Q: What sequence folds into this?
């Protein structure tokens, strides 16, 4: 008859290549005669790290012996030191073991997993303290705050999702991009792990709260997806789209028209960003879905009843149509660009410079982008006229997007203006007119480079330099032809 050791060797051989199974088999064998240690390790696997105070919070019935529990855990071969930012002593389970234990716990005993997650959320939330919406405030106790959000998201999905969304917006507003990357990675881990099981438990209790959680998680995922590294960003955008679609299972047009339209509009923005990052037919299909979602929102957001929401959605529709049109060929592409122009002009009926100057400038910039692409694709005088309209719209946007008040938007609009002027120069027939337009394009690029520096914005610096190089090559060719 095989011994326990023989059996574990047999099990390990059978699980070869499956790191999760291998980790669980090894763990179960080591703690087979100590159920209290096994329970403590399972609790310690819920957070990303633990110390004596964390163990006391997770295991309140053993709080008095937390130091002894910590010593027992430290003797396990899969427990290792954890590098805390403040260098305070902390430990965690090796990631393969931690992931496998968490998964087994939420699948086998969801109530216990939720209880431990709630305790972790309360513990780390107390350590983090209230969120201060300043650059210094978001950095204060950030590791504990991010950890608390991850656990509250599971224990109380609606409240946790709202907290995460607010925190992400604060990080964006204070330009804490390195923290956004950390939040994105942890949020992806939660959503690809226990989120569905935990959120479904709330849906059974309260469908409206479940839908609110899905919507707020979708918002956080959208914001994160657009500003982190592309591979992770694409995953987050796909998860955000999934969350918005889940919310629409509860937010029906008939019963909750405002929430339905708001979710459709936000879904459209996420789909558009997904489509922009996707190539070929897949990207075009996503952009088509974005357009459809905008049009759905406009069934509720009418100019008569909700003019500002109507104008906002017209602007979002225009961006999706412009992207669709730019990536479509021939007459179909031109038709889509024409629809984009019409949607921008509709939005500008409400978004006036006097009442909403920044929204007006944004829509002028979007109008210019669509007109520019139309002009590039159109021949002769028609093309030149459309590019002239694009230049006028960019210049209008710059009346509000000044260097003093909005330096990055000012620089980006100058960059776009440089492209439009260069395209005008390409289509102009007269040599002197070409020179004048190319010189204006050069000037716009040089202005943009005052903000698009290699240190602050290396990617935008590279793009602007490329356009500047092309324009200068055109000017040089004119000089050589005249010589």
A:
């Amino acid at each position: 008859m095989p011994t326990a050791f023989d059996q574990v060797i047999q099990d390990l051989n059978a699980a070869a290549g499956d790191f999760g199974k291998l980790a669980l088999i090894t763990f179960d064998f080591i703690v087979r005669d100590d159920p209290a240690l096994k329970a403590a390790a399972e609790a310690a696997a819920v957070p990303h790290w633990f110390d004596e105070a964390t163990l006391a919070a997770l295991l309140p019935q053993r709080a008095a012996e937390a130091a002894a529990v910590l010593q027992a855990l430290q003797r396990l071969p899969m427990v290792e030191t954890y590098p805390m930012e403040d260098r305070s002593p902390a430990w965690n389970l090796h990631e393969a073991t931690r992931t496998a234990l968490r998964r087994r716990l939420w699948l086998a005993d969801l109530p216990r997993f939720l209880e431990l997650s709630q305790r972790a959320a309360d513990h780390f939330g107390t350590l983090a303290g209230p969120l201060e919406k300043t650059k210094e405030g978001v950095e204060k106790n950030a590791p504990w705050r991010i950890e608390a959000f991850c656990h509250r998201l599971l224990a109380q999905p609606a409240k946790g999702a709202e907290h995460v969304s607010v925190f992400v917006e604060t990080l964006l507003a204070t330009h804490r991009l390195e923290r956004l990357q950390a939040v994105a990675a942890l949020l992806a881990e939660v959503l690809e792990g226990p989120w569905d099981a935990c959120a479904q438990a709330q849906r059974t209790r309260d469908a409206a709260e479940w839908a609110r959680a899905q919507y707020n998680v979708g918002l956080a995922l959208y914001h994160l997806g657009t500003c982190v590294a592309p591979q992770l960003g694409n995953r987050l955008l796909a998860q955000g789209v999934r969350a918005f679609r889940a919310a629409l299972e509860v937010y029906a047009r008939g019963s909750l028209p405002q929430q339905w339209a708001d979710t459709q509009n936000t879904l459209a923005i996420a789909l558009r960003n997904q489509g922009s990052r996707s190539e070929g037919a897949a990207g075009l299909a996503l952009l088509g879905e974005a357009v459809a979602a905008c049009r759905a929102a406009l069934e509720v957001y009418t100019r008569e009843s909700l003019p500002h929401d109507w104008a906002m959605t017209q602007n979002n529709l225009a961006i999706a149509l412009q992207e669709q049109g730019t990536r479509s060929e021939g007459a179909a592409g031109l038709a889509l660009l024409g629809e984009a122009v019409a949607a921008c002009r509709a939005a500008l009926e409400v978004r006036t410079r006097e009442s909403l100057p920044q929204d007006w400038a944004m829509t002028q910039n979007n109008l210019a982008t669509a007109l520019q692409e139309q002009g590039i694709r159109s021949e002769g005088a028609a093309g030149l006229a459309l590019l002239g309209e694009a230049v006028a719209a960019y210049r209008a946007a710059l009346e509000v997007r000044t260097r003093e008040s909005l330096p990055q938007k000012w620089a980006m609009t100058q960059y776009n203006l440089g492209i439009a002027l260069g395209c005008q120069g390409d289509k102009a027939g007269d040599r002197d007119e070409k020179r004048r337009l190319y010189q204006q394009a050069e000037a716009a690029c040089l202005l943009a480079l005052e903000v698009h520096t290699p240190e602050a914005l290396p990617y935008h610096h590279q793009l602007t330099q490329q356009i500047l190089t092309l324009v200068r090559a055109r000017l040089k060719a004119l000089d050589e032809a005249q010589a």
